[in-house]
Amino acid sequence: MQTYYYVLGSRKFLIEEEPLEEVLRERARNYQEQEKELDFWLVQQPAFLEVPEMAEIKAKCPQPAVAIISTNKQVVIWLKLRLEYVLTGEFQAPTASIPDPLASLATAS
Description:
About 35% of the residues lie in helices and about 25% in strands. The protein is built from 4 helices and 4 strands.
């Protein structure tokens, strides 16, 4: 089992209002310079929010939500400082309730 850390915000805020693409590109470039494998992912409408133990977190975040999920806690701390108006937390996966930590409920359009 792995601990996953997340930054969570509304799609409108993170995708439309914040320069999220630029922030993630900056982080990816930093990883490339350090020859480090990426350990963060952008997930629209993350499925982990649907489990009962996440109901309180989901209720605090305008929907549809977007999460940046990482196995590296420092990435989430860095993103929280860059983005400000987001929720952060962690969860364990895979579990019976969260079999795929990166699963999305978004449908392809």
